[in-house]
Amino acid sequence: MESGTEARTEGATAITDAKKRYRAGVLKYRQMGYWEPDYVPKATDTVCLFRITPQQGVDPVEAAAAVAGESSTATWTVVWTDRLTACDTYRAKAFKVEPVPNAPGQFFAWVAYDLVLFEEGSIANMTASLIGNVFSFKPLKAARLEDIQIPPAYVKTFKGPPTGLIVERERLDKFGRPLLGATTKPKLGLSGRNYGRVIYEGLKGGLDFMKDDENINSQPFMHWRDRFLYVMDAVNKASAATGEVKGSYLNVTAGTMEDMYERAEFAKDLGSVIVMIDLVVGWSAIQSMSNWARRNDMILHMHRAGHGTYTRQKSHGVSFRVIAKWLRLAGVDHLHAGTAVGKLEGDPLTVQGYYNVCRDGFTRQDLPRGIFFDQDWCDIKKVMPVASGGIHAGQMHQLLDLFGDDVCLQFGGGTIGHPGGIQAGAVANRVALEAMVKARNEGLDIATQGPEILRKAARFCSPLQQALDTWGDISFNYTPTDASDYVPTPAVAH
Amino acid sequence: MMTNPTGRITQGQFSFLPELTDAEISLQIDYGLKKGYAWSVEYTDDPHPRNTYWEMFGMPMFDLRDAAGVLMELNNCRKTFPQHYIRLMAFDSARGIESIAMSFIVNRPASEPGFSLERQEGNGRTQRYTIRSYAADRPEGERGNGKA
User: Fold this and answer.
1) What share of chain B is helix, strand, coil (3-state, %, to 5)?
2) For residue A422, what is the nearest residue in chain B, using CA coordinates?
């Protein structure tokens, strides 16, 4: 048996002799019980997959054990107070370590957490545990929470999306096709009255939704109350003009929770069907707003503002698929999840993985799509993924082929930048979409015949022809920063 | 005449496209049948966007698995209610959905007067909006150009 104060030795195993285990001093994490290679996760365990890059000379198993320790009960030295607890059951257990294919120095580490460690219905608590500490740990050069399997026992402590994809469609009375939206542009600067004009034109032209941008809250150029008043006038006019239920995501993000509630209440008073919040409001605010949305029959749109700071690099951060899982539990109805073919980061297969997390009743393991675990959603409602960022009507066949019907496609620049005006931009998008859905249902292969289908539709729709002429050649072909490790060649958008 | 780009009510999947021919409708029906959906026919003379429950023309056709049969029901409805809005709806009973999967308009009255927007002053600069369908201003049976 090794002495507890010996320097690093390969093959160190858990010390089972209690007197040796709890003698004051420093042990390796794998000696303290955080590495258990034959552990089989219980049905009630949460299992995390970390992608870790240990520092030079740090054993990957010890690094995995350290991750398990520092994200559950451990600290850097032995503490006798462990013995006041049922510590063997509270410890997280790293149970598997594998090298990442084609990435020397990177390892996948699987860690299991007992259900007792997490507070019911609190994403803030789960994240505080799993990512609150260990990512700054010096022996790790980098760490990423790659994926997570949340047990039904914990899923059922959350209410989930307040409305859900199905009820949203029923409220809008819109079925069988993607929803269409656009974000008002320019991002900042329009006053309330001018802003409302853009809303009216876009909705009357044929979009289902308009949207505040993530940084539109309440600035000197436009107070939030004025935006809400003018937007709802535009929404109602457009609804009367078309006979459709229309909406515009009123951004209620604010400096304090109290201000958020005040703004949301005003949106409700004005009869909006939907409000939006930005990810940067934080997990607790998100859950509070989710509860509010349910009490007030409101669809809750989530803009994932800021996620790119920690989701994009494979080596370090949190994968967006984990964020999407947490947001579904926390309870949002819409979630920006990527376009694959637009201006923002997203390998097509990886993005489809995010969509599956949002929309599945049961998500199956799918390594090329970056899904490492089965995830039972226990009948929690589904999230409508939102594709937004640099997409245009000329890509309609790709978008429909990649994502299917249950998605909200948003064309901000692609509506407002139309040479014939905003209504023409909306018409172009709506005609392109309906023509593509009709063609797909008729059995045509839209992936290859898409451009021809668009050209045919453009013959009876000059706004669509203009859109194709203006943007037909635009694409965003860059190598993705975050493609699956299990695809032989990186997938390029187009 | 309504003044939106199509000049008509744009509810349903294909309202921005030229009217579907019966052949095109059959293809849509086939698609739904292949997916295991159940088709039904509904009609109304009040196309208000919040009017969820159109009249059912017969029961949902859970056991009818050929397009010709569905089309026959649709044409019966057209003969009976030529001046009503008629829509074809496909229902998906799969767990987690249990809702409508497809819905498109297949018949319209000759004239679509659309809706008026009524405004009522509220607190501050708030207005309360009411959308009224011109068609529903008249009693049932006297809406549109034809008889109920």
Assistant:
1) 20, 30, 50
2) B5
